[in-house]
Each structure stands twice: as C-alpha cells, then as structure tokens.
Amino acid sequence: METLKQRRPGDRALGFFLLCHPGPVLIHTVAVTVFAVLGAWPHLVWTTLLLVIGAHFAMQCSIAVLNDYCDRRLDIESKRQKPIARGLVSAREALVFGWAWIILMFLLLLPLNWLALLISLLYLLLGQGYNLGLKSTPWSGIVFALAIPLIPVYAFVGVAHGSPALFCLIPVAALLGIALNLSNSLPDIAEDATNNARTLAVVLGEQRTLLACPLLVLSATILVGLFTLLNIAEAQPLIIWPTLLLVCVLIVVLAIWPRFWRSEHNDKHYFLLTVFTCLLLASGWLSSLFIM
C-alpha cells in the first residue's frame, strides 16, 4: 500500500468519493427516488421526499464505504485501484467515514415514521452482513433477494403510502434481487474462485450464471403478468403491457449476450443492462398500479 505521506492535496477527497462507489449508489438513489415519487404522487411533499431519498443515499454510502474497509486486505493483492489500496485514504479514515454515513442516515430517518426507520435498519443489517462475510458465500444471493424488495417498500412507507399491492412486489423483487446479485458477481467469478470465495455465482459457474440471470428476470416478468391478468394487483393496461413487452425484448438481449457480445471487458455492461431491465420492470409496474 502506498504511504499516506505521499498524498497530494486532492487525493483524500478523491479517495472519499471513490469509497462511496458512486455508480452503484447513484443507481440505488435513482431507484428510491422513482419509487418515492410514485408513492407520493400527486401529493408531493418535498421535505419528506428529500428525507426519504437522503436517508437511503446515506445508508448506501455507508454500505459502500464499509465494503471497501472490510475488503482492504484483499484489495491490496488484487484490486490496487481501490482507494485504500492506493493510499488515498487510510483504513481508519474509511471506518470513521462509514460510521459517519450511518449516523447521518439515522438523523434523516428520525422525522419519518417508525416503519421507515425499521425497514432501513433491516436493510442496513443485511448490507453490513454482506460486507462482513456473507458475500463470500452462496447466501449472498439470499441477501440480495431479501434486500431488494425493501427498497420500494421503504420508499412507499417513507412517504406514508401503504398499499396491499406492495406485498405482491416482494416475490417479484426477490427474483430480481438474485438476478442482480449474479450479474454483479459475474466479472469476479474467476478471482472469487481463486480466493476460495463461495459466492452464488462461483457455485453456479459462468455458464449457469449467464443462463440464470435472464430466467430470473423472465420469471419475475411472468409473475407480474399473472398478477395483472388475475387482477391480484390492478394495473393500468396502457402502462403495464408496453412495459412487459419492452422488458421481454431486453430479456432476449440478456439471453443472447454471451453469444454475440460477451468478453471479459464488458461484463459490467451486462450488469448495467440487467439493472436497467429490473428497474424498468419494477418502475413500470408500480407506475401502472399507482398512477391513475
């Protein structure tokens, strides 16, 4: 590890920025923003919206920062571009920074209702459990399956919009959560196997992981279609059916991706496409349920 004495004036700021994993945190922030706006529409209370979004943003930053802190020794060996391994920030600074985000999260949650606080605490425990070792086991997929449904539920509860339809979202989001976990782990399968990390993607292997991702998203799409056809969750046809059609097109792209575009350099693009497909399905379905 580079010595901290070699840091230039802007290195620490860059290190703190990179510790927050800006790309993934941005995706989560966009998702919770979409869900919170849908839950509050058309009676938007901006202070409540900002508190809901800000608290979730702070929680995601804490999980990201403490993820790098927990992985600091492995990163020195295999991911030297990480901020702690590069010497941009010290391990102690990262630990304090991560806890500062947790404190900020709780401060932002205090004006909201107790259920939003409880859901956020559960998500935080799942995220930090993932950091502390679960991500190196097949249980990593279960963590995602449990955590992903909490994002829309938290957003709707945070803006004080409870609905029985949210319970239909749980199995759908669980399937999408496992798909996201597998696609996120895809670029690291070889490295994780070398380090004896038994992630769900490592257990399945590359080929079955690439097969499982579109199948999981397809299963979630079929479930949404069944909920709509059986009127278990009443959706606006002009929104939900075009959404499902577009999602099916993207599922086909995910399915044929390994044959036409797969390389070791664009697995992150596959993950981003999976994220976009999942977000489109979830936001389109919720829009059809709650926008009248």
How would you concisely characterize the structure shown here?
Its main location: membrane. Helices cover 76% and strands 0% of the residues.
Structure description:
This protein is mostly helical. It folds into two domains: 1-162, UbiA prenyltransferase (Tetracycline Repressor, domain 2); 163-292, Up-down Bundle (Four Helix Bundle (Hemerythrin (Met), subunit A)). Helices cover 76% and strands 0% of the residues. It contains 15 helices and no strands. Helix 8 (139-147) packs antiparallel against helix 10 (165-185). The termini are far apart. 42% of the residues are buried.
Number of strands: 0
By CATH's scheme, which homologous superfamily of the largest domain applies? Answer: UbiA prenyltransferase
- Tell me the strand percentage band: under 5%
Annotated CATH architecture of the largest domain: Orthogonal Bundle
Helix residue percentage: over 70%
Distance between the termini: 56 Å
Q: Sheet bearing the most strands, described?
A: none
Class of secondary structure makeup: mainly alpha
String of helices and strands: HHHHHHHHHHHHHHH
Which of globular, elongated, flat, extended, rod-shaped describes the shape?
Answer: globular
Pfam family, one: UbiA
Membrane topology: Multi-pass membrane protein
Main location: membrane
Organism: Dictyobacter aurantiacus
Keywords:
292 residues, mainly alpha, Tetracycline Repressor, domain 2, Four Helix Bundle (Hemerythrin (Met), subunit A), 15 helices, globular, UbiA_prenyltransferase
